[in-house]
Protein backbone atom coordinates (compact mmCIF):
# COMPACT_ATOMS: atom_id res chain seq x y z
CA UNK A 1 0.00 0.00 0.00
CA UNK A 2 1.29 3.43 -0.90
CA UNK A 3 0.69 6.24 1.54
CA UNK A 4 1.30 9.75 0.24
CA UNK A 5 3.84 12.08 1.82
CA UNK A 6 0.91 14.13 3.07
CA UNK A 7 -0.57 10.99 4.67
CA UNK A 8 2.74 10.15 6.32
CA UNK A 9 3.05 13.71 7.66
CA UNK A 10 -0.49 13.50 9.04
CA UNK A 11 0.30 10.21 10.79
CA UNK A 12 3.52 11.64 12.23
CA UNK A 13 1.75 14.77 13.49
CA UNK A 14 -1.03 12.69 15.05
CA UNK A 15 1.54 10.43 16.73
CA UNK A 16 3.27 13.48 18.18
CA UNK A 17 -0.04 14.82 19.48
CA UNK A 18 -0.77 11.38 20.94
CA UNK A 19 2.58 11.41 22.79
CA UNK A 20 1.54 14.73 24.34
CA UNK A 21 -2.11 13.82 24.95
CA UNK A 22 -3.56 15.58 28.05
CA UNK A 23 -0.55 17.92 28.18
CA UNK A 24 -2.27 20.85 26.51
CA UNK A 25 -2.11 22.22 23.00
CA UNK A 26 1.11 21.97 20.97
CA UNK A 27 2.14 24.78 18.62
CA UNK A 28 2.43 24.00 14.93
CA UNK A 29 6.04 25.18 15.04
CA UNK A 30 6.85 22.64 17.78
CA UNK A 31 5.16 19.78 15.92
CA UNK A 32 6.99 20.72 12.73
CA UNK A 33 10.35 20.93 14.52
CA UNK A 34 10.00 17.73 16.53
CA UNK A 35 8.81 15.70 13.55
CA UNK A 36 10.98 17.52 10.94
CA UNK A 37 7.92 18.45 8.87
CA UNK A 38 7.44 21.52 6.65
CA UNK A 39 5.51 24.00 8.78
CA UNK A 40 3.32 25.49 6.02
CA UNK A 41 2.32 22.04 4.73
CA UNK A 42 1.64 20.92 8.30
CA UNK A 43 -0.74 23.87 8.77
CA UNK A 44 -2.87 22.63 5.87
CA UNK A 45 -2.84 19.05 7.18
CA UNK A 46 -3.84 20.11 10.69
CA UNK A 47 -6.66 22.23 9.28
CA UNK A 48 -7.94 19.18 7.40
CA UNK A 49 -7.70 17.08 10.60
CA UNK A 50 -9.49 19.85 12.51
CA UNK A 51 -12.32 19.99 9.95
CA UNK A 52 -12.68 16.22 10.34
CA UNK A 53 -12.91 16.73 14.13
CA UNK A 54 -9.84 14.62 14.90
CA UNK A 55 -7.91 17.52 16.42
CA UNK A 56 -8.95 20.82 17.92
CA UNK A 57 -7.20 24.15 17.93
CA UNK A 58 -6.66 26.30 20.98
CA UNK A 59 -6.13 30.04 20.57
CA UNK A 60 -3.91 32.28 22.59
CA UNK A 61 -0.40 32.30 24.01
CA UNK A 62 -0.67 28.65 25.00
CA UNK A 63 -2.51 27.79 21.80
CA UNK A 64 -1.88 25.12 19.25
CA UNK A 65 -3.40 21.77 18.42
CA UNK A 66 -4.40 18.75 20.49
CA UNK A 67 -6.23 15.51 19.89
CA UNK A 68 -9.98 15.78 20.19
CA UNK A 69 -10.31 12.15 21.28
CA UNK A 70 -8.08 9.78 23.21
CA UNK A 71 -5.32 8.10 21.15
CA UNK A 72 -7.01 4.75 21.85
CA UNK A 73 -10.10 5.98 19.99
CA UNK A 74 -8.37 7.07 16.76
CA UNK A 75 -7.72 4.33 14.20
CA UNK A 76 -4.95 4.73 11.64
CA UNK A 77 -7.53 3.95 8.94
CA UNK A 78 -9.45 7.16 9.82
CA UNK A 79 -6.40 9.33 9.28
CA UNK A 80 -5.32 7.63 6.06
CA UNK A 81 -8.83 7.66 4.58
CA UNK A 82 -9.19 11.35 5.37
CA UNK A 83 -5.90 12.36 3.80
CA UNK A 84 -5.39 9.77 1.03
CA UNK A 85 -8.86 8.40 0.35
CA UNK A 86 -9.70 4.67 0.23
CA UNK A 87 -7.23 2.29 1.86
CA UNK A 88 -7.15 0.01 -1.14
CA UNK A 89 -3.85 -0.40 -2.93
CA UNK A 90 -5.77 -1.99 -5.84
CA UNK A 91 -8.92 0.11 -6.02
CA UNK A 92 -11.87 0.11 -3.68
CA UNK A 93 -13.52 -3.08 -2.50
CA UNK A 94 -16.76 -2.57 -4.40
CA UNK A 95 -14.89 -2.03 -7.67
CA UNK A 96 -12.93 -5.26 -7.10
CA UNK A 97 -16.10 -7.22 -6.29
CA UNK A 98 -17.62 -5.98 -9.55
CA UNK A 99 -14.55 -7.11 -11.48
CA UNK A 100 -14.67 -10.51 -9.75
CA UNK A 101 -18.28 -11.02 -10.79
CA UNK A 102 -17.86 -9.77 -14.38
CA UNK A 103 -14.38 -10.89 -15.48
CA UNK A 104 -14.27 -14.68 -15.15
CA UNK A 105 -10.92 -14.96 -16.93
CA UNK A 106 -9.17 -12.78 -14.31
CA UNK A 107 -11.40 -13.58 -11.32
CA UNK A 108 -8.64 -15.30 -9.29
CA UNK A 109 -6.32 -12.32 -9.73
CA UNK A 110 -8.97 -9.86 -8.54
CA UNK A 111 -9.77 -12.13 -5.60
CA UNK A 112 -6.12 -11.95 -4.53
CA UNK A 113 -6.19 -8.15 -4.82
CA UNK A 114 -9.38 -8.04 -2.74
CA UNK A 115 -7.82 -10.26 -0.07
CA UNK A 116 -4.75 -7.99 0.10
CA UNK A 117 -6.96 -4.92 0.32
CA UNK A 118 -9.09 -6.47 3.05
CA UNK A 119 -6.04 -7.58 5.08
CA UNK A 120 -4.44 -4.11 4.91
CA UNK A 121 -7.73 -2.41 5.78
CA UNK A 122 -8.32 -4.75 8.72
CA UNK A 123 -4.89 -4.04 10.20
CA UNK A 124 -5.30 -0.27 9.84
CA UNK A 125 -8.86 -0.35 11.19
CA UNK A 126 -7.76 -2.31 14.27
CA UNK A 127 -4.63 -0.28 15.05
CA UNK A 128 -5.02 2.93 17.02
CA UNK A 129 -2.62 5.76 17.77
CA UNK A 130 -2.32 4.34 21.29
CA UNK A 131 -1.29 0.95 19.87
CA UNK A 132 1.45 2.60 17.83
CA UNK A 133 2.62 4.59 20.85
CA UNK A 134 2.86 1.31 22.79
CA UNK A 135 4.75 -0.38 19.97
CA UNK A 136 1.85 -2.65 19.03
CA UNK A 137 -0.32 -3.15 15.97
CA UNK A 138 -3.21 -5.40 15.01
CA UNK A 139 -0.76 -7.43 12.89
CA UNK A 140 1.61 -7.99 15.83
CA UNK A 141 -0.85 -9.85 18.01
CA UNK A 142 -1.88 -12.24 15.22
CA UNK A 143 1.64 -13.03 14.03
CA UNK A 144 2.79 -13.56 17.62
CA UNK A 145 -0.06 -16.03 18.17
CA UNK A 146 0.87 -17.90 14.97
CA UNK A 147 4.56 -18.05 15.96
CA UNK A 148 3.62 -19.27 19.42
CA UNK A 149 1.59 -22.12 17.90
CA UNK A 150 4.41 -23.02 15.50
CA UNK A 151 7.11 -22.61 18.15
CA UNK A 152 8.98 -20.03 16.08
CA UNK A 153 10.98 -17.29 17.80
CA UNK A 154 9.52 -13.84 17.50
CA UNK A 155 11.40 -11.38 15.36
CA UNK A 156 10.98 -7.69 14.76
CA UNK A 157 11.85 -6.12 11.44
CA UNK A 158 13.07 -2.54 11.54
CA UNK A 159 10.86 0.12 9.97
CA UNK A 160 12.23 3.42 8.83
CA UNK A 161 10.00 6.38 9.58
CA UNK A 162 11.09 9.79 8.43
CA UNK A 163 11.53 12.07 11.40
CA UNK A 164 14.01 14.31 13.09
CA UNK A 165 17.28 12.33 13.28
CA UNK A 166 18.59 14.60 16.03
CA UNK A 167 15.66 13.67 18.24
CA UNK A 168 17.03 10.25 19.18
CA UNK A 169 14.98 7.29 20.33
CA UNK A 170 13.97 8.52 23.77
CA UNK A 171 10.24 8.52 23.02
What can you see in these coordinates?
This protein has 171 residues and is mainly alpha-helical. The protein has eight helices and two strands; from the N terminus they run αααββααααα. Strands 1-2 form a two-stranded antiparallel ribbon. Helix 1 crosses helix 2, helix 1 packs across helix 3 and helix 1 runs antiparallel to helix 4. 19% of the residues are buried. The C terminus is likely disordered.
Secondary-structure blueprint of this entry?
Layout (H helix, E strand, L loop, with lengths): L4 H15 L8 H8 L3 H13 L3 E4 L5 E4 L8 H9 L8 H10 L4 H19 L3 H5 L4 H13 L21
Antiparallel strand pairs: 1-2
Instruction: Quickly give the structural class.
Output: mainly alpha
Total beta strand runs:
2
Strand content: under 5%
Q: Determine the mean pLDDT.
A: 82
Number of domains: 1
Radius of gyration: 19 Å
Q: Give the CA-CA distance, first to last residue.
A: 27 Å
Q: What is the global morphology?
A: elongated
- Could you give a short account of the major beta sheet? 2 strands, antiparallel
Strand ordering within the main sheet: 1-2
Amino acid sequence: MKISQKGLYALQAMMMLARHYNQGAIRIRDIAYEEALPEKFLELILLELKNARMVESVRGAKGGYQLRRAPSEIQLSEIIRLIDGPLAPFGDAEQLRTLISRDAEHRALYQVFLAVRDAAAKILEHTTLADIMNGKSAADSKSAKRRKKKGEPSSVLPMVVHGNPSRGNND
